[in-house]
Amino acid sequence: MDELRQHFSLSDPIGEVANMLDNLHIKPGNKISTYNVDFMRYASQLGWENSVLCYRYYQGLPNWIQDPISTREQGKSTSFQDMYALVITIDHRYWERDRERHRARQVEKEALKSHSQKQGKASTSSSVTTSQSKANLSPVASSTRNPSSKSSLSPAPKKQPNTPRVDLSSKLANNGKLTSDERKKRFKNNLCLYCGAGDYKLDFCPKKQTTVSLKGHGASATADTLAAASEKPLEK
Predict the structure, then answer these.
(1) Which residue from 187, 201, 199, 163 is spatially nearest to 179, judged by alpha carbons?
(2) Stretch 22-30: mean pLDDT, rounded?
(3) What Rg value do the Cα atoms of the chain yield, rounded?
């Protein structure tokens, strides 16, 4: 055993333990219990005085424990046992508050999620209502939006009265114009070349003007006036 210690043991074990205690600090996220176990293990091998242990114990603490200790009305404790008990109390309160903050964040997160879902449902419902309103537009509204579309409410075209057809075979030739005898007869008797009536000439024929007006409105003229319309005035 002496030979083994001579070759493999530390040359200054007390110095090594003191160095490890000087570099001991609480790691981020760890609780005070881990730090206390390591500190007590090293301190038991050194035999340091109470005030020295208290100072070294305080130096290894994180800021969230040092701050409430340094701001106490009675100041820092010089007793290691008092410091040890105070640090455990502060550590417990710190992690209790951390759990409260975590629960508050979870509640806030759930509230935001629920609010977003309600807004999504309201937006979907509004879209469906708008689509149904567009689909249920009345014919009048549809025709107003699209004037070019046909509407069932548009008035039907007026029907022209049926005019009885007149037999013009004795007055018209095969080419649809007045026969030579009919033209001579109308010239001789000073009759209108358009309608065959008297007292006015072709340019003042009321039936001719009525026929032209009807054609301009897309209506059909009577058989005798249409036949006569194809006749050119005979040059005198």
Answers:
(1) 187
(2) 85
(3) 59
